[in-house]
Amino acid sequence: MKPLYIISSSCISPQNTFDETVLFDGNEVKTAHENILSCIEPDYKGFINPVQIRRMSRALKLGFSTAIDCLRKSPVKEMDAIIIGIGKGCMIDTEAFLHSIRDYNETALNPTHFIHSTYNQLNGMIALDQKINSYNVTYAHRGFSFEHTLIDASLLIDADEAKHVLIGSFDEMTPEHFFIKQKWGYWKNEITDSKALFLSNSPGTLAGEGYGFFVLGAEKTCADQVSILAVQTLYNPSDEEILQAIQSILTAHQLEAASVDLLMLGNNGDNRQQHRDELLTTVLHEATPLYFKHLCGEYDTASQFGFWLLSHVLKRQQIPESLYHPSQRSDSLKRNQVCTTIQ
Amino acid sequence: MQDLQDLKQSLKTQIIESLNLEGMSPDEIDDNAPLFGEGLGLDSIDSLELMVLLERNYGIKIEDAREGRKAMESVNAMVQYIADHRTK
After folding, report:
1. Which domains does chain A carry?
2. Mind giving me the DSSP string for chain B?
């Protein structure tokens, strides 16, 4: 795999990440409200024209604004591909459409909710607005959706079919979606503060949502550009398979386990899934473990938020206090080599 | 049965709600101005939304596209069409 350089990025999350400096300047972490972390909405006027906005749902407004912000930050304007990952599509429109089917006995259904409930709606809107008439793909692979945007971008760049790719992912949380997953035991039964998530020692986690976009390129556009050297996904792996995958990535890049500085863990505070942390921190014993799901909550494409955070940690060479485990003391970034994100 | 003036007022409110015309009041919609292209500047998806509105609120099902275009030329045209064809 050729390196993928992160040329620009933009992120809307339950934290003040749209203004990139805020999370790194020691500001107060926004906490969950009744176990849901909801995104902070920007002023849409600067991103969406009034004619477009009236028909857009909240998820589309947030996703479109994030993508446009990312493209504006990029010194490269010509995109060869748009690749977006989404776990379940625009939930509000899907729910409204399903309610109409029930309420009106499968007649007189609103076209707008149907159109916007489709997975690739945001891809189309970005392409039309930016006049990007090239490769345009949506991955709806639930927990692997964001990872597949990275893999696809890497394949395109490796095959010299693209030089610059806009990738991104998003998922929204709605009251109904929260309610259904509550029944399945996804969320914590007790009201949990974000800061106390990793100390809760109970089943379930916090619900969340988020929107993130990146312009990736085959070549550097500045000296200190963060790059992606390897992407690997594992479905329901055994401990042995995880260890083999880590070793194979390290070997491919002539690295030792001890040379990994940071380990971004996808721990979501569910006490039924803690043993992976122990495994990873034992193998990558020199790495400082960092955490992000107390800031964004759990959703299918949450790894994108961890990925966005890591790219900024590496670029700034600064770790926000909020990424450490509550029982951990902050440690300075020692070197600048490899980070691993585990969903 | 509503008189035409009341019908016009409630239809304008329904149009604003169903097409999500944020910041617009019923008084700002010109009774005679074209709904599509000029005037309100609505598009083809809006025309489908208006057909859904007619079916849900007035029990009117428009099968013929030409008849639909005529019925939705303006607010006044819609009001007259509703008065002539409503089943609820």
Report:
1. 4-342 (3.40.47.10)
2. ---HHHHHHHHHHHHHHHTT-TT--GGGS-SSS-SBSSTT-B-HHHHHHHHHHHHHHH------HHHHHHHTSSHHHHHHHHHHH---
